[in-house]
Amino acid sequence: MHAIVCHASKDLRVEPQPQPQPQPLAPHQLRVRIARGGICGSDLHYYQHGGFGAVRLREPMVLGHEVSAVIDAVGSDAGPLRVGQRIAVSPSRPCGGCRFCQQGLPNHCLHMRFYGSAMPFPHIQGAFQESLVIDTHQAHVLADHVSLAEGAMAEPLSVGLHAIQRAGAIFGKRVLVTGCGPIGNLLIGSLRAAGAGQIVAVDLAAGPLVCAEKMGANRTHNLAIEPDALQRYTAEKGYFDVMFEVSGSAQALRNGLECVAPRGVVVTVGLGGDVSVPLNLLVSREIDLRGTFRFHPEFAQAVDLLNRKIIDVRPVISHTVPFQQAVEAFELASDKSRAMKVVLDFGVED
Predict the structure, then answer these.
(1) What is the reported pLDDT for 271?
(2) Angstrom distances, CA of residue 32 to CA of 23, 29, 72
(3) Per residue in 153-172, pLDDT tens?
(4) Does residue 176 share a domain with residue 88?
(5) How far apart are CA 277 and CA 271, in angstroms?
(6) 136 shares its domain with 243
(7) Where are any strands of DSSP class E within the chain?
């Protein structure tokens, strides 16, 4: 079989790999054929820069963690899962035994095996490979009407759902979203489903804002054209009850904070490195600043929302490219003026 392997910055190869273990599988295991895979921002960081922050590639690593698949073989304890079923595959594999897992915080597992991660060494190999052995708990069955490309969106949708969980009550609230890439736009769709009263989205490009409107934003602002657009929301100690900063930009965080009303909540979704924060604003307005990291139980919720047609992720999918053209796909995904979410096609029919 073949896999998409990153060796270093700008060194991405489609390479042959050993086949997963033959039958018999362990009772709790499945062998699956990967069908579609979404290129994530972290995949792009590995491709463009060889890592992000202190996380660096120290050995070749298969990329990818946003995938759908078709079950090829099942272990003896697979329950209702059967060969031929179409599934979304959760990349989150906590150990279940460390102190954070025991506290109900599996996304902070000390021994997490999250697909395509260079955080530990040896690295955790990713899911952009034609065949994969997974645990049954990672498999979430897709409804017949959900395409395999949509199924691959369950992972980034889960990120937005966990961010909302970190924010607390959303129903009826005024919400600001800064940064309308794939995560930001899937977050907007989730906010609409959660009953947000008003969603205002800002970005520096027109394309992402068009997508934001399709996903449910009530109002959008292109700050490249109208740099002072957020000023109208700063009067009388701010307008928004909740803000999600998804761009990773220090300036976006600072500008957005000016628009948050007293006792508001700010959730930082984008990884922006070291930034300065106007603590005087947080103190004087009693603003809560909260982080959000990955997800775990939200993956099942994401698939359920897709299966029940509560959230339509199709506006976020801009391109589908054969996985053999991985370099071209990654270059396309890097060009935000042309692409939103680029999905790799591993040759499995829908």
Answers:
(1) 73
(2) 12, 10, 5
(3) 999 999 999 999 999 999 99
(4) no
(5) 14
(6) no
(7) 2-8, 11-16, 29-38, 51-52, 55-56, 61-62, 66-74, 86-89, 131-135, 139-141, 174-178, 198-203, 219-222, 240-245, 260-268, 288-291, 317-322, 341-345
pTM, full prediction: 0.95
CA distance 240 to 256: 9
Q: What is the pLDDT of residues 257-275, one digit of tens each?
A: 999 999 999 999 987 778 8
Instruction: Give per-residue burial for 337-348: e unless 16+ CB within 10 Å, then b.
Output: eebbbbbbbbeb
- Distance of CA 200 to CAs 180, 190, 211, 337, 346, Å? 11, 14, 13, 21, 36
Task: Select from 126, 157, 118, 117 the least CA-distant residue to 37.
Answer: 126
7 CB burial (10 A radius; 0-12, 13-18, 19+): middle
Tokens of 83: 């060969």
Which domain covers residue 133, as residue numbers?
2-153+313-345
**Is residue 118 in some structural domain?**
yes
Among candidate residues 146, 133, 4, 149, the one with its CA nearest the CA of residue 67: 149
Task: In whole angstroms, give the CA distance from residue 141 to residue 289.
Answer: 36
